[in-house]
Structure formats: structure tokens, C-alpha cells
Structures
1.
Amino acid sequence: MRIRRKKDPEAVRAEGRASYARHAEKRRQEARDRRAAGLVKLDPIKAGAKNDRRRARLAAAPGSYTPAEREAVFYWFGFSCCNCAETNNLTIDHIVPLACGGANSIENLQLLCLECNSAKRDKPEVPPRRSIGATIWVG
């Protein structure tokens, strides 16, 4: 295979892409089965923290926080939106958005419902109803 790959790498890549396309539904079904069997657990707190770290790295934003600190934000704000007190469809929001130079730190996080977060977009306009302690919260 190595010799063939060296001689004609494009043909080998094309075969790989074709095989990937042929077996796409089988792979999707196997992933669904693993999730249904409980073998794969999707933790939204860890996934959100990982996604925020990636976004912060791309924006070259300072600061970081752990998934446990991210979960603490939900508890601190009492599982309700900082703007309208909604308790459904909650999201973690950066008070000063990463796109506007905000830090990716626990002090820059607030809990907003999906509607308020969408309305806010990338503007740092929604002041937090409550803050995470005077010693920790800078916002």
C-alpha cells in the first residue's frame, strides 16, 4: 500500500473519499447506537467549555476557566437568565464578547436565555442582574 500511495497519491485519496461516502450512513447509525446504549455521554458543560476555549484561542483572548467553574455559573445565577429571569433554554454568555476583546474568564460570564443572548449578539449591553461575588466578578 505504501508503494502504491507513493506512486499515485491522488488515486488512493479518491478511493478513501469514495469509501467514506459509501459507508457514511453505517458510521452515523453506529454512532447513534453507541449514544443510545449510553456508551457515549455528551456533557454539555464540558462541551461548552471546550468550545469557548477554542473560540478564545482563535480570538487570542486572555483567561480561561474549568468546566466546573462554568457549571458554577448556572448555580450562581440560580438557573435563570440575568436579563429576563427566564429558566428555559439557558446559555453561557461573555459579558464583553470575545469578538470585542473580552476575556475568556469566569468573571466575564453571565447566564442568558437563548432569546436574550441572540438579541445581544456581539454587543456588551446587557448588564448582569447579579454578579459572581465582589472579589471574583469584574464586569
Note: Residues 2-36 form one domain.
2.
Amino acid sequence: MPDPASKLVTLTSSPSEFEAAAIAAALSDQGIPARVSGGTIAGFRAEVPGEAQVLVFEHDLDRARNTLRAVRADSVDIDWDDVNLGESEPATETATSPPGPVIRKLVIGLAIAMVVAAVVYEANRRYEQWLADKVFFEPG
């Protein structure tokens, strides 16, 4: 029979495996062993969405609850609308700017060349097949 002190119990559940893993990591930082269960289906959104559960040993449950309350109280929620990010810099042309007319013409030219090559290849393939059929089937 397993030791009752080693029984795992659910501390909390989360719809996201990431959040459950963050809780487990915070508990582990405080010396409370914790693990996440059910994470492989937590993000699955078919007919039955899953939850990730944070599991702790039963003898650590009260300490884990208190630690979780303290961690949540100390967490920082940032309202980015209230944060002053300074003045935005003027836009400059970078590698992410749209291609210029020269690049656009090169891309169009390359696309046309690829279409022409495909047509020539197919015409050559059909001609070679016609020749093979003619030589093979015509009496000579």
C-alpha cells in the first residue's frame, strides 16, 4: 500500500498548460514539489476542452495554497495603456519595407520565365512521346 503522505492531490486547475506550469514553477521555487497533469489536452478545443491540473503532495496542500495566494498577490498585472513608451521614432526604410519597383519587376520576370520553362518542358516531353510512339508503331 502506498504511503498516504505521498498521495498527489489537485491544488488548482487551469485552461492553459502554460499557466499551470508557471504555478508549478512558483511552488517549486518555494520548496514545494509540484507537477502538471493533463497538459497535453489543455489547449485542445474540440467538443471537450481539457484542463491542466497542478498537483502537490497531500501533506503540502495547505502550504501550497498559502504560497499560491501569496504568489498571486505579488504578481504584477501591467496595464499597457498606462505605460509611457516614449515618442515613436520616425519610420525608416528597413528590410521589412515593401519591395521596390525593381524587385517587383524581377519577381514578375522570374515568374514569367518559370511559366515559359514549364510550357517548353511539357511541349518537349509530348514531342518526344510522339516520336517514340511514331517510331515504335509505324512500319518502317
Note: The mean pLDDT is 79.
3.
Amino acid sequence: MNKTEELQYYFKEPKTYGWIEVKLTDYLITHIWNCINDAHGNAKGSLIGHVDKSLVMKDKNNILFDQVLKPMIKAYGNKWGHSHYKIGTITNSGEGNTYKYSLEQFWVNYQNQHEFNPIHNHNGVYSFAAWLKIPTDYQEQNQHYNAIDANGSFNSAFCFHYVDSLGSIATTTYEQRPDMEGMLLFFPARLNHEVYPYYNCDEQRISISGNVWMREPNVFDKNPLKISYIEK
């Protein structure tokens, strides 16, 4: 090697898993509102959210699953793979049974001021969350007395939490404001997340969430919603 020979170097990034943002169309938003209007059955018994109410929904004609969730599963696999969970299209040797993705749980949350959803993750393979109504503005909310001079702004926020390559806890914050209405986040079910409260607003925040599982054809899970949480 002489003095003029250039060094060869390469950038390496560790394998990790992200999530997908989807801006829902007006057609899909109308479909979700129709599902919300017909929601019934208390889902709170299996959810950790400290919110006014959570109701079980049905995805009518599988529109959300077919037009959003199935394409997102494929897109996620193309980008990051599915090795975060032992999933995919699986055939049992000798039996010929193919396991398929299925939207097993689907619910709507009604959240009032001061209410929150502590850090938690979900069961299943993939999960999603979307906002239908956000009556507050993140910037205004963080002018509230409890956020002034704080080292961080979390009033009216949705956050993902994960460990980075250096072993530190990292956070990605989604600021809750009206222009976030119609945004859907699609992520691995085990990804930790939480929802912070808002203040000085009598209107409710309305959001939906759900879990995608792997199931054998014609086998239906009769168990209630299964949500886990992590204590801080």
C-alpha cells in the first residue's frame, strides 16, 4: 500500500424491524366508521387501556383486511422479512394444511381527557392502530402547565419504544393533531407502544386497533382479546 492508495470502507447496518405508515383513503375511512357505528361488546376486559370504553368491531366484508392489511403484510415481508416471528405460509408435513393470516381482533377506543394507554404490546403476529378523530393539537397540548420546561413533550402523543443497537431505549413519537386523522400504523405485534393523555378538551379521541394472527383454514379463535403489557 502506498501513500496515495485510498482506503476501502463499507457502511453496515444491523438488522432491525420498523413499521409502515398508511394514509387511508376516504372510502376506507367511511368503511371504518360504518364498522364503528355497528360496534358492540365490551373489549376492555382484555385491554390495558385506561380509557372510557373499547368496543369489539367486525370488519364488514373483510374490506380493511383485504385492501390494507394483506398488502401491508406482503410489503413488510419484502422490506424487513418475517423473522421477527415464526410466520408465513406454513404447511404441516403430511397433512397439507396451509396456515393463513387472519384479522382475529378488531376494536375501537374512545378516549377522554386525562385518560391514557400505558406501555404495552399485543399478541398475534402483526398489529395496527389508526386515528379517526383527534380533537387536540400536539403543540398546544404541550403548552399545558405540566409540560412547560419539561425535558420532552408527550402530552397528546403516541409513542413506539424499542432498544437500539447500542442497547439504549429509543422512542419514536407521533404527534397527535387533526392532520393525523386517517393515518394507520402497521407494526409487529410485539413492538412496545403507548398513548399519552391530553387536557383541556371535552371531546373524545377515537382510534381503532387490531391484531393479525396465523390460523388454520376454518379454525376460529373463540378466545377473547389477548393484550399484554409491560410495567415501567
Note: The first strand starts at residue 20 and ends at 23.
4.
Amino acid sequence: MAQTYTVRIKNGTKTIEFRLYDEKRQQIEVGDQIEFSKLPNLQEKLLVDVMELYREDSFENLFRKLYNDEEEITRKVMSAVTDPKRIKKDDLGNPDVCMVAYYHNLFSTKEEYENVCIECREGSRGCAACKKQLAHNIIETLRPIREKRKYYEDHPEIVDKILMDGTAKAQKVAQETMKKVKKAMKLDYFAH
């Protein structure tokens, strides 16, 4: 994994990782831990917990599911289940059983999350206000990703160039690696 991503995982600004749903990854379950190795030398390891899994048959469907428009995100959050024992705004709540509080922990700052929990327990904040804040935070977290996606959708020639450049770079590395393999196995008798 590239250094920029490992730094973002450590500081909590990267909480989603996309991978193909191949045979190896079909074994992953919520609660598992995954070890990433930081590029370029793979010496530094980073252990992360799997909090949630999204399985789709294509990246396009996964993006549609995760990165809906702002109205859809707000609609989904506003329909989320909260503490079932909390009926009125001033009822004392339990954020430990509330999915909205769980997602605040993922999409809000530490300070915001702590305030949500305190205000919920005190009954000083209603669930609707809590959901509106969460929807706003999710939208703002996803905004740069959606903007970047839109940019690349509007500029497919850049995506093509990135893929071609990456392929050329990978081929060069693979050729050098194969030279070393052939030399180590003494199969380089045709090399000059």
C-alpha cells in the first residue's frame, strides 16, 4: 500500500478500502484483521479491523451503492434506526446501541462523536438533529471522492493514460525481476 494511504489510515481519514472480490477476499468477514504492507520496501506493517463489507458484482454497482447523491445519503441516514428505547427528544439515550452513533464514530471528528454520545445520554439532543449532522458529515467526507470520480468520468483519456503508464511501468519492473530470476536459476545463457 502506498505511503499516502497508510498515513491516511493511521490518522483516520481513510476508512474505506476497495478490493476485487476474488477467492482470497471471499474469506474475509466483519471482525477480521487485515495486514497491509507499506510500499516501497514493504517493511512497515499496518493492521486494520474489518468493520463492514460491501459485496457487489462490479465496481460500478459498489460506487452507486456507496456514493449516492446527497439527497439519497440524507434519506438513508434519516431513516436509520436509533436507540429503540428513546421515544422523545429529551429521553435519555444509549449511543452504544444506536447505529447513528456508530456511524458518527466513523464519519465525525472525535470531538463531535464524544459530544453526540454525551448529548444522547443526557437527552439534550434529538435523534433527528443527530442524523442531520451525520448526513452532513458523510456527504462532506465523500465529496472529494465523488468530485474525483466525476472528473475521471468526464476525462476518460486521463484514465487511459494512467492505465497505459502503469502498465508500462509494471512491464519494466517485471522484465527486471525476470532477469534476476533467470540469473539466479542460471537460465540466462542467452543473455549477453
Note: The two ends are 36 Å apart (CA to CA).
